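Q: Convert this sequence to structure tokens.
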Amino acid sequence: MIPAPLLINALLVGAGLFCLGLVGILTRRNLIVMFLCAELMLQGVSVTLVAWSRYHGDWGGQVLTVFVLTVAACEAAVALVFVLQAFARTGRLDAAAWQSLREETLPRVIDRELPEGDAAGPTWPTLTPAGVRPPEDASHTLEREHV
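A:
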């Protein structure tokens, strides 16, 4: 059994992590950041469960934390697939990009209109062709002649 001040400190840390994750989910539109904030919320719950488990002297909260971490790992794997699929189809990681991932037979539901700038397709970097020599400076040719 741990003293009450340590319990209060652990509960404050858990509540802080949960609140930071909640604020991040409510304010950000980037899918990766939103899923990271969901993970932060789960970690806050885990800290709270472990603190209460230690305070009461049993293993229940710590065992439940193992299950919470397992669910968090599975959620991260599934979220990665969703994020990659949304990026492959739309070229952006905006949360509004989920609209294009619906079934073709269902009508489009629009919570709010997309900004005009998001209508353009993705631009990918290009490499220079292989085997093309860069132009030589005149100073290099003069040095070679004197050598």
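DSSP finds four helices and no strands in the chain.
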